[in-house]
Structure formats: structure tokens, C-alpha cells
Design goal:
Layout: E1 4-7, H1 12-17, E2 22-25, E3 28-35, H2 48-66, E4 73-80, H3 83-96, E5 103-108, E6 118-125
Parallel strand pairs: 4-5
Antiparallel strand pairs: 1-2, 2-3, 3-6, 4-6
């Protein structure tokens, strides 16, 4: 039976709401929905593109701890506050994930945190590479 590894980012939300930033089971890594809040200073830039870049910075340590990288992502779910936000961040995601090309679902939602416009959740299979 595969072992489970819970990975925390240190976000206060994780402890407060009882979840992990990531969970590794075998060679699969599940990344929780992650927003673009800078964990060091608690701020959220209003620019959705900057939020997207901050999300990547927020999840990269979990990938490193699990022995994975962004190139192992096989599935994304992108949450945005309105369709226009996806039109803004979509092309940037196209640049970030151009060589990876994971599946992606985009969902329009309301966030309980002020200023948040984008959230990403991901599933990765460690060691898989695009062919």
C-alpha cells in the first residue's frame, strides 16, 4: 500500500481549515486549490497575472518536497472570479504550461478572500514527462 505524505506551505489557512497544501500518495501529487497570496507578508496583488505567478511560487516548494516539478502536472483546475479573468490569465498559463500541456478545467467562482481573482488546483504524476 502506498504511503501518504502531507505537505504544508505554512499558510495559516491550512491549519485553520484542516487541509494540506499538497498530499503525495505513491507517485501521485495532489495540490490543493492555491491562491496568489504572498505568505511572507499576507498581501494579494490585485493583478490576476501577478496572482498567477504568486500561485506558482506558492506551490513550487510542495513540488520540490515531493520530488516533483511543474512538468509532472497532468491536470489543472483553474478557478476565476469572472470569465474575463480567465481571458487575462489564460495566455500566461499557455506560456507557463506550453511544454507540459496538462488537462485543464476553468470554473467561475466567488472567493471568500478579498482581492483573490485566481486559484489553481493540480494533480501531478511524479516522473511522467511529455512525449
Amino acid at each position: 500500500m502506498p504511503k501518504r505524505l502531507n505537505i504544508s506551505s505554512g499558510s495559516t489557512f491550512e491549519e485553520k481549515f484542516g487541509y494540506s497544501r499538497a498530499v503525495k500518495v505513491g507517485d501521485t501529487l495532489y495540490i490543493s486549490g492555491t491562491v496568489g497570496i504572498n505568505y511572507e507578508n499576507g498581501t494579494c496583488d490585485p493583478d490576476p497575472i501577478e496572482q498567477l505567478h504568486q500561485i506558482i511560487r506558492n506551490i513550487e516548494p510542495a513540488f520540490q518536497e515531493a520530488g516533483a516539478s511543474l512538468s509532472d502536472i497532468v491536470q489543472l483546475t483553474t478557478y476565476v472570479t469572472e470569465p474575463e479573468v480567465f481571458q487575462i490569465v489564460g495566455p500566461v498559463m499557455g506560456e507557463i504550461f506550453a511544454d507540459i500541456r496538462p488537462t485543464n478545467a476553468a470554473v467561475v467562482v466567488a472567493f471568500p478572500v478579498p482581492d483573490v481573482k485566481v486559484e489553481l488546483a493540480a494533480t501531478a504524476v511524479i516522473g511522467c514527462r511529455s512525449s
